[in-house]
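About this split. The held-out portion is used to measure sequence recovery: a designer receives only the structure tokens and must propose an amino acid at every position. Recovery is the fraction of positions where the proposal matches the reference. Here is one held-out target exactly as it appears in the evaluation file.
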């Protein structure tokens, strides 16, 4: 009788895991490289060497406006990472943006030194409020390196603490969105108080120098512009790396079916916490680059309306795409600049109408619309005729002979 048992060792079981998506295609890398060269070389040339009045000249206003929108675009990418890929709609990312701005603002206020109105080592608002010494949390902010460390640590630690307790309690959906909105509103009310040591209603302004260079100098503004672009590019590449990795696939699975992920042996807490904290740090970096370019930071940056506006940028551009939020930030803020100049009283109504129309007719945003148009154009193209191979005379003769 034949035995079905075999002495050979069984082959190990291997789970077929799909290969990682490429970070970018060859065309994508070439486009990023070309864009970097244009900004790193072309912008300084147009801003510093091209004379005023020339069509290619970049004015200080244009540099500030585009640089500010690039900061918004970086914050939009950060929000898209948690909303588009992890399914967490945060209405409090404006808080992380403002905290990064305040960390930079503290350094810029200390850099004023005795050039302020009151010729004191203390910031002007502290002298006005009759403060005698710096609060303990201001010590060390005269060093740029320490301020940059605060830009990363303050939003990151706050986001980690909030996320740990919120995600561990399995708070999700609209409840989490409301809590994030309440958190940023409470922080705004706290920073409005003069006793907190952050300038109260006026915040920080009248900056003089950054890293020893005059903030208002054209060379400094150009350098900040290029630095903001590089930060935006680095943030985009980093988020793209995350979402194309195994971690990104798990995060996307958490968004689509968190319970199934848990039953598969994964703990969603760590994945959600990492993405949430990284997103907050990106927002802090965006805020840090925003402040020296616009020249002011106050508690108004923490208003819930700003966080909601970030969600509008992501929705307009297309969430879950990374490039869509960049497009949305430029479209919405470009329209805001134009409409506030001509229709200042109706801008908020136009913003609300834009969000409603996008929700109803463009659920996938501008990127989704472009994809549908591309698919429609491809389907409308006539199919290429299939070329028939020529039949040789010998084959014809053989066929006729066989029929005979």
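Reference sequence for scoring:
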């Amino acid at each position: 009788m034949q035995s079905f048992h075999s002495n050979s060792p069984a082959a190990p079981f291997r789970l077929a895991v799909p290969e990682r998506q490429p970070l970018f295609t060859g065309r994508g890398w070439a486009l990023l490289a070309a864009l970097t060269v244009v900004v790193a070389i072309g912008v300084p040339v147009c801003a510093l060497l091209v004379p005023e009045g020339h069509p290619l000249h970049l004015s200080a206003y244009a540099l500030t406006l585009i640089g500010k929108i690039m900061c918004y675009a970086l914050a939009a990418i950060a929000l898209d990472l948690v909303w588009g890929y992890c399914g967490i709609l945060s209405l409090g990312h404006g808080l992380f943006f403002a905290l990064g701005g305040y960390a930079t603002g503290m350094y810029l206020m200390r850099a004023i030194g005795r050039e302020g109105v009151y010729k004191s080592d203390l910031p002007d608002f502290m002298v006005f409020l009759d403060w005698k010494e710096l609060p303990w949390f201001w010590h060390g902010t005269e060093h740029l390196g320490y301020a940059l460390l605060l830009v990363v640590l303050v939003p990151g630690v706050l986001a980690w603490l909030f996320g740990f307790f919120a995600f561990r309690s399995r708070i999700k959906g609209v409840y989490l969105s409301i809590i994030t909105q309440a958190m940023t509103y409470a922080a705004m009310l706290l920073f409005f108080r003069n006793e907190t040591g952050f300038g109260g209603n006026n915040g920080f302004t009248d900056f003089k120098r950054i890293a020893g260079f005059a903030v208002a100098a054209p060379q400094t503004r150009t350098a900040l512009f290029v630095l903001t672009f590089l930060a935006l590019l680095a943030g985009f590449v980093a988020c793209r790396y995350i979402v194309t990795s195994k971690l990104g696939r798990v995060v996307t699975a958490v968004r689509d079916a968190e319970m199934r992920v848990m039953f598969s042996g994964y703990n969603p807490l760590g994945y959600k916490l990492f993405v949430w904290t990284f997103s907050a740090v990106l927002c802090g970096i965006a805020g840090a680059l925003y402040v020296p370019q616009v020249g002011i930071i106050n508690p108004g940056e923490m208003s819930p309306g700003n966080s909601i506006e970030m969600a509008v940028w992501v929705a307009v551009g297309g969430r879950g795409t990374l490039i869509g939020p960049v497009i949305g930030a430029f479209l919405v803020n470009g329209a805001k600049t134009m409409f506030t100049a001509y229709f200042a009283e109706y801008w908020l109504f136009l913003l609300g109408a834009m969000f409603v129309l996008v929700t109803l007719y463009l659920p996938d945003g501008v990127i989704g619309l472009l994809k549908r148009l591309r698919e429609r154009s491809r389907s409308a193209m006539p199919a290429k005729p299939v070329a028939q191979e020529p039949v040789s005379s010998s084959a014809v003769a053989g066929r006729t002979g066989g029929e005979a």
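Annotator remark: The chain has a mean pLDDT of 87.
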